[in-house]
Amino acid sequence: MFLYEVAAALEKAKVPYAIAGGYAVALHGAVRGTLDVDIVLRLSKSHFQAAESALRGLGLAPRLPISAAEVFDFREEYIRNRNLVAWSFSDPGNPSRVVDVIITHDLSKLKISRVRSGGRTLPILSLPDLIAMKKAAGRPQDLEDVKALEKFRQ
């Protein structure tokens, strides 16, 4: 499964990450189909560079012609002036293999939950942080995810 390939590559590269987006929604227990893998990194140039290298090692290429260093160095400008939320990677030979690196959040300011899936332990955003991120995004699918996730709050 592509999610496990991404997780293994990031772990091998020692990249601090957590799964966000649709996979995190599903791993928290809500019914949710998705193809792309959304991740949040701890903000540092070295983590962005290591993630870029790990994802390229899976045959993925950035959709925009910008490097990890550029994404990190100009992150605020990309967010503010270009409305860039995620640095996307895709497989030119298989367009269903997509990873979005969420650049609007810093993993060091978020809480991580760990869940067992596919015989391994995966880091996912905590339920409260995932709900907050989904509410802030405000897109229709995100708001539907919030409704589904609210049922799992203790």
Protein topology:
Layout: H1 2-12, E1 17-20, H2 21-27, E2 37-41, H3 45-57, E3 61-62, H4 68-73, H5 75-82, E4 86-91, E5 94-102, E6 112-117, E7 120-125, H6 127-137, H7 140-150
Parallel strand pairs: 2-5
Antiparallel strand pairs: 1-2, 3-4, 4-5, 6-7
Description:
With 154 residues, the chain is of the alpha+beta class. It has one domain (2-144): Beta Polymerase, domain 2. The protein contains seven helices and seven strands; from the N terminus they run αβαβαβααββββαα. It has helices spanning 2-12, 21-27, 45-57, 68-73, 75-82, 127-137, 140-150, and strands at residues 17-20, 37-41, 61-62, 86-91, 94-102, 112-117, 120-125. Strands 1-2-5-4-3 form a five-stranded mixed β-sheet. A two-stranded antiparallel sheet has the order 6-7. A hairpin with a 2-residue loop joins strand 6 (112-117) and strand 7. Helix 1 (2-12) packs across helix 3 (45-57) and helix 6 runs antiparallel to helix 7 (140-150). The longest helix is centred in the N-terminal third of the chain and has 13 residues, at 45-57. The radius of gyration is 15 Å and the shape is globular. The chain starts with a helix and ends with a helix.
